[in-house]
Amino acid sequence: MSNRLAIRIASPGEALDAFEAVWNHAAEGGRGTPLSVLAFADLPLLLATLTPARWALLKGLREAGPLSVNALARHLGRDYKNVHTEVRALEKLGLIGRDAQGRIRVKWDIVSADLRFDR
Predict the structure, then answer these.
(1) Is 87 exposed, middle or buried (0-12, 13-18, 19+ CB in 10 A)?
(2) C-alpha pair distances (Å), 104 with each of 58, 76, 77, 83, 95
(3) Which residue ranges make up each domain of the chain?
(4) What is the rounded distance in angstroms from the CA atom of residue 87 to the CA atom of residue 96?
(5) pTM of the predicted model, to two decimals?
(6) What is the pLDDT of residues 65-113, one digit of tens each?
(7) CATH architecture of 4-114
(8) 8 near 119, Cβ under 8 Å?
């Protein structure tokens, strides 16, 4: 089974409604496939948060496997301070985490985006 993250555009009310539906389903004894979702209020916020540089960092880290921030900066050929700043932001979003040795790693096997015109 793959570890999947869905990225969506959703208002706070829509996100709350989705949470409530899952909660009620579980309270009724329902079982389902766990789904992790990262929701943004709008597309400009998503694009400002998940920049091309951050996506490239995620891709490079996913390909290389767990690394220290210093090793990742060298692997990407980027400045340590900038990589450190990006890593902190991606950790706050839950897109990367740390292993038992403190190395950073991509937490997801698959990241998919659901972008709709009606938002």
Answers:
(1) buried
(2) 10, 14, 17, 12, 10
(3) 4-114
(4) 8
(5) 0.77
(6) 999 999 999 999 999 999 999 999 999 999 999 999 999 999 888 888 8
(7) Orthogonal Bundle (1.10)
(8) no
Do 6 and 37 meet the contact criterion of CB atoms below 8 Å apart?
yes
Q: What is the DSSP string of 60-115?
A: HHHHH-SB-HHHHHHHHT--HHHHHHHHHHHHHHTSEEE-TTS-EEE--SEEEEE-
Please report, to the nearest 10 degrees, the dihedral formed by the alpha carbons of residues 64, 69, 74, 77 taken in order: 90
In which order are the strands placed within the sheet that holds 4-9? Answer: 36-40, 4-9, 110-114
